Amino acid sequence: MRTNLADYECLTPGSVREALEQRATGRKLIPIAGGTDVMVWMNDGHLGKVGKVYQSLHALAGEWRYVKTDTEGNLRIGALATYSDVRHHEDVKKNYPMLVHSAQVTGAIQIQNRGTLAGNIANGSPAADTVPALMVYDAKLRLVNASGERVVELSEFFTGYRANVLKEEELISEIILPKPRFAADQQYYRKVGTREAQAISKVVFAGANDGKGNVRMAWGSVAPITLRSKKTEDAVAAGAAADDAWAILQTEITPIDDIRSTRDYRLKVSQRILADFLGKVHQ
Amino acid sequence: MTPSNPTYQYVGKSVLRNEGRNKVTGRAVYVDDIATPGALYAKTIRSTVACGRIKDIQFGPGIPWDEFTVVDVRDIPHNVVELIKADQPVLCDGVVRHREEPILLIAHPDKGMVENAAREIKITYEVEPAILEIGPGAVQTEYLIVEGDVDAAFASSDIVFEETYQTGSQEHVYIEPNGFIAEWQGDRIVLHGSLQCPYYVVKAVKMCFGIEEKQVEVIQETTGGGFGGKEEFPNVVALHAALLAKKSGKPVRLIYDRQEDMACSTKRHPSVSRVKIGVSRDGVLKALDFDFQIDAGAYVTLSPVVLSRGVLHAGGCYRWPAARIRGRSFTTNSPPYGAFRGFGAPQSLFATECAINAVADRLGMDPAEFRRKNFLHKGDKMPTGQVLDVEPNLDAMLDRVIAMSGWAEKRASMKKGSGRGVGLATILHGTGFTGSGEVYLQSRVALAGRADGKVDILVGSTEIGQGTETIFRQIAAEALRLPMEQVEFHKIRTSAVPNSGPTVASRTCSVVGRLVQRAAEQMFEKLDGKSVAEYVKANGSLRTETQFEPRPGLKWDDATYKGSAYGAYSWMCNVAEVQVDPVTATPKVETIFATVDIGTLINPTLAYGQVEGGVAQAVGWATSEKVTLRDGVMANCQMTNYIIPTSVDAPDIQLEFMPTPDPFGAFGAKGVGEMPMDGPAPAVTAAIGHAINKTISAIPATPEDLIS
Questions:
Q1: Which of B110, B113, B257 faces A2 most closely, judged by CB atoms?
Q2: If we measure between CA atoms, which residue out of B592, B623, B626, B595 comes closest to residue B685?
Q3: Is residue B14 one of the residues assigned to a domain?
């Protein structure tokens, strides 16, 4: 481990209220949910670049670790629900198959038992595996602070590479998925990782079509943020063929060369995934 | 099929691994697990440029430097890492020859402080242009083997084929990074380490400090894998720890983390092979012209020997009426490349096997039939002039692997470019060091009887996960006619064991095992019916010792590179079955079928483990294990970004052993550890080529390479 832990501070609030009060003081507190990203920074010696003071949400599990369907039929995933909680939940298995799939292919079992979907969102990696699936399901985030809350669309949460609309005093309290609207065979999820398991995505895609003019397509690892390709969605909803859709998609994604793959590969694979998706859902 | 001789009690039986229980229950103590009260934590400060001169070193503010032990080049009695050539400094001598070159060593009782201090050392350089590829740099070592009239043979060939092949580097990814704990006890140094070759460390420390061998004690702790990566590299780690311990007067822990280990330590030599093959229209090989080049990195280390093995295997398992094989290693500004399972042979055999497949294709012949026409048989001459004195049994091995894999049907049904393919590779691997190498080593082994009736095996050959402890106990117990529980293998301390040579070159089971067998046979005769306890009581002690003896008639001339390169060869026929994803161009190696001749299987379970592990490692090398070099060093130095196969990625492996025992190996055993690294890569690339109707001439063949 390349970090001198003595240089860092970690607050351990016992409740949501205490956590939000700590955040209201104006200090920059880096929240720790599952800690699976924090551990990587500790090991690499990059903790200092992220922040000096951390806030463990561990003791908030009683309030925030849940997966449930509310009376209106929305799925609610508490901020401390883990990948394992989500992928094994009966309602998720029944109604949100891409969420199960994307949670299954995230990291190893150990990561799935610790890591949270909310943490994955807050961390803001454009390679996050569950985020495209959540976006296709029109996920919303409830953001809370000591004095109130607001709800934002996940597809509008990210503002740039690892940047988002979350304010220092806020925490994500839950993820809300509207009632399921896509038939099972009209949903398509594909992770193109560096290998078949325990891999980071080179391209990750989720797409769905409800047959009533609603097409959703979300992409990871091909831009600074996970994004919905809304122009391409509209074109496809209006009946665009694969070639035309691809021409539009190229104006929306901006893949790069990095340690895991190349811009060229990501473009080619995105084009093929788009064609494969369009071939598999009816228009 | 698990062949075993029913007359043996232990040989040929899959007895449980000696140290296995401790490893799977977490009781095994690795070097980082050892408690060392009062010890200092150490870190190595490394160069950030590939080539240049150190202009200035600044120790930044805010660090209590007076609490630190800092070692620089002036603290080193003799600034050389002793190996083949005395060219590698222990710490950079002012001239930087590669990135990650060690420049300073620092140590402090608080590990966190060490990390902070390391960040505050600023080194400035006068940067010079670096050489980062094979070709422009100086030739370090060169070999040339010529047999027959090569030019005439090409002139009389109907078809002359030429192609260039490239193989990338490969990181060992042993499960435990390098590490040492060093402590001076008066004028004697004790080193605990993770290593393959304890006597290499003894020699390096002795030479650097100018002390006697008896002043150096090297203790091998439980070692989490080696694959060659802990052959010579641990010398450097041991020297650094010893220097800090000397200067501070305290025990020093120098344990690498994964990133440092991957970035700075040795790796497989990248290679370029220019292959020219002459063949008759009916598929008989006439001539080989093979130009084998490897990137040695900045220092010589073991590159001459790696080059040698590559050259000696370049002819593969074929009969060449004429052959010219030239090998060259080139100096570059990468960290020195080093020993890695196969030791040069996988690189040259990749080119040979790819070329053989391509020539068969050119001839319109089934690559299996083409091989059958050209296999080596007893009495045939190899490029070094070695005449094979045993029949390799390749025809039967090929028949069997063809049958096991459904080769003919699959080749017929899988159309080129269909996304599915099969590929073939047949290879050989020489057991142990070359003829002169084993003579030079003069390995020694001892057995000692104890008053309690037990027998200790005394060797410097290490357990690194491959099964040394277990097979040596099997061999000794068999020859002593004693229960295995009566034969013990202890943690290796160089003061207590003779030098049985390095644990490398697929030599431990066959060559050193033979010495154990002979020592046990001598002890059995000495006992003459008495029990060990009775003998020790009557005579005070019981000890037998054996030393390597070359097999009769074996001659090798290092000056001409002619003669019998290896005393025995192992053989392997591989068929790969591959599917390439139409969307992602990702090659999935579904199955590797193989027939394997490693002579007698001392322990079938361990033999399967060696072959299966080697196959998985070779498949990784061929497809996903890309060492991304920046400024000559590995940029993707993390488990996340260096892609070894997981259990989901690894192929199904179907093996059959077809032993032809070697009368000079332990109970007939030949080399096993390295050979499985040789064949799968060319078989896989042939299968990928078939699947996507393209010629693959470089590995790793990643999806990024295959998609266009």
A1: B257
A2: B623
A3: no
User: pLDDT at residue A83 above 90?
Assistant: yes
CA pair distance B232, B394, nearest whole angstrom: 35
- Residue B6: pLDDT band by 50, 70, 90 thresholds? low
Contact B643 A264 (CB under 8 A): no
Q: Measure CA A17 to chain center.
A: 25
Report CA-CA distances (Å) from B536 to B448, B527, B531, B541. Answer: 10, 10, 9, 5
Helices (H), B420-565: 435-441, 468-480, 513-527, 532-539
Tokens 């150990």 sit at which residue?
A: A110
Element (H, E) at B612: helix B604-623
Q: B13-48: per-residue pLDDT in tens?
A: 999 999 999 999 999 999 999 999 999 999 999 999
Answer yes or no: do B231 and B272 share one domain: no
- What does the pLDDT read at residue B579? 98
End residue of a domain, out of B521, B547, B573: B547
Chain A residues with CB inside 8 Å of B647's CB?
197
Residue B381 shares a structural domain with residue B392: yes
Task: Name the residue range of residue B588's domain.
Answer: 139-170+267-434+563-707
- Which residue in B116, B583, B585 is closest to A4 by CB distance? B116
What sign has the CA pseudo-torsion B6, B12, B14, B17? positive
Name the helix (H) or strand (E) containing A20.
helix A16-23
Mean pLDDT of chain B: 97
Picking from B115, B585, B647, the nearest residue to A3 by CB comes out as B115
Check CB contact under 8 Å for B641 and A194: yes
Instruction: Return the pLDDT at B435.
Output: 73
| Boundary residue ending a domain (B215, B237, B264) | B264
